[in-house]
C-alpha cells in the first residue's frame, strides 16, 4: 500500500502533465479522468491535487485560466505550455526506459 | 454558515500566500466543492449531506494551506538577492566608510522609499519586507537621539515621540502580519541590531562620535552582511519552521557579535534588554497574529 503511494507520489507531476497535454482540464475533471482512465486504480486525495497543479504552474509547465461557463459557474482550466510539453516528452522517454528495464528484471526467468 | 463557507474561511485563515494567489486558490476550491456536491446530490445525498461529504473528501484545510504555502514560499535567486540588497547597501556603507556621506545616505533613503512604494503597489512580494524595515529605522533612530537630549528636553521628547514611534511600528507590523507574521519578524530584524550599535557607541550631546563609529564600522558592516545572508536564506527556504530558525540563528549570531567588540561591547543590562527585544520582535508578531485571527 505504502509502496503504491510512493510510486504515485513520484509520478504525480507526469500523470498530471500527460492528462493536461491531451486537452485543457480543470481540477475536478482531472480527478475523474485519472480515476476513469486507470480503471479506478488512481484515486487522488482531492486536497492534494491543487497544490500539485499550482506547483506545475509555478514551474511554468502549465498555465491556469479562468473560464466562465454558460450556467455562470467559473472554472480554472489548465493548459500545457511549451516548457511543460518538453518536460513531459523527457519524462515519458525516461519512463519508457525505466519500465523496460524493470520488466527485464521482474519478468520470470526464461518466460 | 454552511460547511463549505466554513471550510473556505478556515482555508483563508491558514493560507499565507499573496492576495492574488489566495483569491485563485479559494475560488478554485469553491468550484471544486460545487462540482463534488452536485455529483453527490445526483447520487441521492441531501444538499447538506452532499456539502459536508464534499468538504470531507477535500481533506483538512490546514494541510491544503500548508502544501500551497510550500509551493509559493520559495522565492527565486533574483528575489533572494533583492531581499538582501538593502542590508548589503548598509553593510557597504560602513565597510567603505561612507556612512557619514550625506549624499550616500540620501541616495539609500530615496532607494528604500522608492522600492517600498514599488513593492507595496505590486502586491507586497516577500522581498519587500527587508526594505520596509529600513523605513522604520530613521523613525527609531531619531527617537533614540531625542531621548538622549540634555535636561528636561529628553522627557519632553520621550512623551511626544515614543507614543508616535510605537504607533507607527505597531501599525506597520499589524499590516504586515495580515500577510504573514514571519514577514513581520523579517521586517523588524534590523531594529535590535541598530539599537544595539547605538547603545554600544554611546550618544554624546545627541550625536554619535565619528571616531567611535569609525573604530567599530567593520563590525557594523559584518552585522548587516549577516542580515543580508539571512534575508536571502529566508526567501530561498520553503518550510516555515526553517524560515523562523534562520531568523533566530541570525539574532543569536548578531547578539554574540555585539558582545565581541572589545571596549564598545554593550553593558550586561543593555545586552539583556537586547535579548528580550529580539525575542519580543521574533515571537511578538506570531502572538499578535493569533490575536488578530
Short note summarizing the structure:
The complex is a heterodimer of chains A (111) and B (293). Chain A is of the alpha+beta class.
Describe the structure.
The complex is a heterodimer of chains A (111) and B (293). Chain A has one domain (2-106): Arc Repressor Mutant, subunit A (Orthogonal Bundle). In chain A, helix 1 crosses helix 4 (82-106). In chain A, strand 2 (62-68) and strand 3 form a beta hairpin. The longest helix of chain A is centred in the C-terminal third of the chain and has 25 residues, at 82-106. Chain A is an alpha+beta fold and 111 residues long. Chain A is built from four helices and three strands, in the order αβααββα. A three-stranded antiparallel sheet of chain A has the order 1-3-2. The model of chain A has no long low-confidence stretch (mean pLDDT 88). Chain B has two domains: 3-71, no CATH class; 75-292, no CATH class. Chain B has a two-stranded antiparallel ribbon. Chain B is 81% helix and 1% strand. In chain B, helix 1 runs parallel beside helix 4 (61-72), helix 10 runs antiparallel to helix 13 and helix 12 (240-258) packs antiparallel against helix 13 (268-292). Chain B is an all-alpha fold and 293 residues long. The mean pLDDT of chain B is 85. Chain B contains 13 helices and two strands; from the N terminus they run ααααααααααββααα. Chain B has helices spanning 3-14, 19-42, 47-58, 61-72, 77-95, 102-121, 128-147, 153-179, 181-188, 190-201, 210-236, 240-258, 268-292, and strands spanning 203-204, 207-208. Chain B is elongated, with a radius of gyration of 23 Å. Chain B starts with a helix and ends with a helix. The A-B interface holds A 26-28, 45-48, 50-51, 54-55, 58, 64, 66, 73-76 and B 21, 24-25, 27-29, 31-32, 34-36, 57-60, 63-64, 67-68, 70-72.
Amino acid at each position: 500500500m505504502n509502496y503504491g503511494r510512493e510510486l504515485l507520489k513520484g509520478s504525480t507531476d507526469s500523470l498530471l502533465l500527460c492528462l493536461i497535454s491531451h486537452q485543457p482540464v480543470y481540477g475536478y475533471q482531472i480527478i475523474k479522468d485519472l480515476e476513469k482512465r486507470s480503471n479506478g486504480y488512481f484515486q487522488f486525495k482531492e486536497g492534494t491535487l491543487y497544490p500539485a497543479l499550482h506547483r506545475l504552474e509555478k514551474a511554468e509547465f502549465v498555465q491556469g485560466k479562468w473560464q466562465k461557463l454558460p450556467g455562470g459557474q467559473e472554472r480554472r482550466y489548465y493548459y500545457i505550455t511549451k516548457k511543460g510539453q518538453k518536460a513531459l516528452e523527457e519524462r515519458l522517454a525516461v519512463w519508457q526506459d525505466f519500465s523496460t528495464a524493470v520488466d527485464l528484471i521482474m519478468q520470470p526467468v526464461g518466460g | 454558515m454552511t460547511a463549505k463557507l466554513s471550510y473556505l474561511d478556515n482555508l483563508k485563515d491558514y493560507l499565507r500566500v499573496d492576495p492574488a494567489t489566495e483569491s485563485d486558490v479559494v475560488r478554485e476550491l469553491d468550484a471544486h466543492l460545487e462540482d463534488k456536491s452536485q455529483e453527490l446530490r445526483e447520487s441521492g445525498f441531501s444538499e447538506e449531506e452532499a456539502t459536508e461529504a464534499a468538504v470531507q473528501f477535500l481533506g483538512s484545510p490546514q494541510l491544503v494551506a500548508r502544501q500551497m504555502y510550500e509551493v509559493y514560499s520559495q522565492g527565486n535567486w533574483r528575489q533572494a538577492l533583492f531581499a538582501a540588497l538593502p542590508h548589503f547597501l548598509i553593510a557597504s556603507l560602513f565597510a567603505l566608510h561612507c556612512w557619514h556621506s550625506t549624499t550616500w545616505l540620501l541616495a539609500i533613503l530615496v532607494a528604500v522609499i522608492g522600492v517600498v512604494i514599488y513593492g507595496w503597489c505590486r502586491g507586497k512580494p516577500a522581498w519587500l519586507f527587508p526594505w520596509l524595515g529600513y523605513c522604520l529605522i530613521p523613525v527609531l533612530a531619531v527617537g533614540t537621539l531625542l531621548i538622549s537630549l540634555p535636561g528636561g528636553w529628553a522627557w519632553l521628547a520621550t512623551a511626544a515621540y515614543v507614543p508616535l514611534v510605537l504607533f507607527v511600528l505597531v501599525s506597520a507590523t499589524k499590516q504586515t502580519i495580515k500577510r504573514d507574521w514571519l514577514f513581520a519578524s523579517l521586517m523588524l530584524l534590523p531594529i535590535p541590531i541598530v539599537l544595539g550599535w547605538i547603545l554600544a557607541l554611546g550618544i554624546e550631546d545627541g550625536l554619535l562620535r565619528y571616531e567611535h563609529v569609525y573604530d567599530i564600522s567593520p563590525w557594523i558592516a559584518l552585522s548587516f552582511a549577516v542580515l543580508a545572508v539571512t534575508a536571502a536564506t529566508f526567501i530561498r527556504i520553503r518550510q516555515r519552521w526553517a524560515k523562523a530558525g534562520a531568523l533566530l540563528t541570525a539574532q543569536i549570531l548578531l547578539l554574540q557579535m555585539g558582545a565581541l567588540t572589545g571596549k564598545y561591547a554593550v553593558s550586561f543590562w543593555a545586552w539583556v534588554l537586547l535579548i528580550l527585544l529580539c525575542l519580543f520582535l521574533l515571537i511578538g508578531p506570531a502572538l499578535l497574529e493569533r490575536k488578530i485571527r
